Amino acid sequence: MKPVSNHSLNRFSKDLRNNMTEEECRLWFGFLRNLSVHVRRQKIIGNYIADFYCSKHKLVIELDGSQHYSEEGQEYDRKRNECMTSQGYTVLRFTNADINMRFSAVCEEILAKMKKGEG
Length: 119
Hints:
Elements: H1 6-18, H2 22-30, E1 40-45, E2 48-54, E3 59-64, H3 71-86, E4 90-95, H4 96-101, H5 103-118
Parallel strand pairs: 3-4
Antiparallel strand pairs: 1-2, 2-3
């Protein structure tokens, strides 16, 4: 994989924060930003940008739209997950359909993962 410059990633992560998907907005405004722990949006980790990141729990939360279902998208996600888990991060992945059809269950799963990390 070709390294990406920090400047390019910083600009891209800012653009992503300013142009969140409908599902990212729902998860952020409806749940994550109100947690008692700090969660960041579009956090740069290595050569990747995580949708959401909680440093206290080393937890990455990813929302997957249709681009993640292609062979190329799945391979990219696999490499990305490997990179993040090799650095000690836990990665939770949810589909946009999960956000739209089982929002409460997604929120409960995130909370459960955070509680598990405290023990």
